[in-house]
UniProtKB/TrEMBL annotation, chain B:
Transmembrane segments: 21-42, 62-82, 94-111, 131-155, 176-194
Domain of life: Bacteria
A single cellular component GO annotation: plasma membrane
One Pfam family matching this protein: COX3
Taxonomic lineage of the native organism: Bacteria, Pseudomonadati, Pseudomonadota, Gammaproteobacteria, Cellvibrionales
Protein name per its UniProtKB record: Cytochrome C oxidase subunit III
SUPFAM superfamilies membership: Cytochrome c oxidase subunit III-like
Record keyword Membrane present: yes
Keyword tags: Membrane, Transmembrane, Transmembrane helix
One GO BP: aerobic electron transport chain
GO molecular function: cytochrome-c oxidase activity
Amino acid sequence: MKNYIYSKNTVVLLFLVILTLLSWYVGLSGDESLKSDADSVVMIFLSFLKTGLVILFFMEVKSSKPELLGMCGVWMVGSCVLTSSVLLSYI
Amino acid sequence: MLAQATFLKQEQRRNPGELGVWVFVLADMFVFTMLFCLFLHYRNEDVFSFNESMKKLNLHYGMINTVILLFSSWFAANAAMAMHKSSLRACKRFMLLTMLCGLSFLVLKGFEYSEKLSYGITPYSNEFFMFYYVLTGIHLLHVIIGIFVVGFAWIRLKVVGGEGIGSVGIENAVTYWHMVDLLWIILFPLLYLLPLS
């Protein structure tokens, strides 16, 4: 059991949880100075960063063949750019 | 030397699970990307109404569900790792924990839906809640299927053993489960956190 707890995946999990709690705190905060359209884009970027960590480490794509790595990269970057562009089109 | 230590050689690289599962997972994720863009497009047309509706969502439910799914992904990754190490007992235990997290997600989502419905908030309330119920509903369906997929792999592991199902069978189930987590990671900020300015 110790092998699983003291592993790279656990560090990734902790990082993911911290990022989630941070975004939750910003969402919860009544402080309007914390909230802007740029923050919306940052929040989307952070969530795609989280998906990148899950894909690379949990899904073991880090050690997969370049074709799969490339396809996952295309989805991640493409989706991030697409969603951010649609969001920014309002501004 | 450093390059050798850092990068895996071509022959050392292998895709986890079967190609068909990855085609399905990537296609599903691309479809969800379109749904995310559609949601943001409608939000842009009526930002005020969407922001006001978003404030009616319970952020705590969203955050707890995200953490639950992150832990479930960690358990699923460990199940695959245990299978590689031929530790069937640990693999079965991690798969059970993954399913338990999935069930907790379902229960919490049930509470969230019943809370909304008790306030009279339905998919017909406005466009935001139409998207909320459709997006979370489709995701919930994925979670239910994921629990069955992991459960099926767990039963096969119990009945036919490690050699019967093989590490690829476990990897297929685990890859599907990770997709469920990935989709929620994007859905959480879109539905719960975006009403910023």
